[in-house]
Design brief:
This protein has 15 helices and no strands. By secondary structure, the protein is mostly helical.
Amino acid sequence: MTPPIAPARILWQVVEPIHALTYFSPESTACFGAVGLRGFWRGYFAGRAAPLGAASADAVAATFFGFHPAFVERAIPGVWALAAPDVAIAARIAGVTEALTRLFPTPGDSVALGVAAELAREALDGVEATRRPLFAANASLPWPDAPAAQVWHATTLLREHRGDGHVRALIAAGFDPCESHITQVASARTSLDHVKPYRGWEEHDWTAARRRLRNRGLLDTRGRLTAAGAHARASVEAETDRLASAPLERIGADRTARLIEAFGPLAERVVLTGSIPYPNAMGVPRPLG
């Protein structure tokens, strides 16, 4: 019998596609480009790191966790000479607001966005930010005024809260970045080729990581998870869900169901309009349903 999916994971599946508009929508690309952040990675690193301030490459690599430090250094700290953090934040909000306004143009859509944002804000109010640097940095930003921007800010808080907890779970399980990618791909039975070009690690890094996993009895010689490896990876995901549950515990089961119900149709429209590519290097999931 398949165990039920944790509400925190279902919520992630319906907020992540909305958050990901900042990386994939043409409006976001244009707004980043207008302030000098041309090219996908300048916009990605500047936009996502800007709430931390003019962070160093080492700080961004440590916080984002999955990238080779040299890959991060291609953008950080150089992007801060192109666009100061407050400029990058403004461009990020402008881009996703335009994208969401295009995708949700009617007065009824604005109501639906407002309902989702209000429920999310209730869940997030007062959530503990200790050991959650990206969540804490985004939580320090003011809530936007427009419903579309509010929804996007809410999805960003929820996904960075979850992401910070995911990094904690991976580190506690003894996985470094390469090992994390390899075990995630093996668990999902997808190809590491979808990840390799976007993380900056060299082939010898991947080879060494596979060797370490095999030596620990977590990966077999064909690159598949052993029983121990599958258990370790499942434990990471379960711990990630547990660490992501604080906002939902604040509002209880009934309002959690309403929150998921409010975000579900929004995520489905984002996906059905082709706004997010699948598969994608971020691992953005398709909403359930």
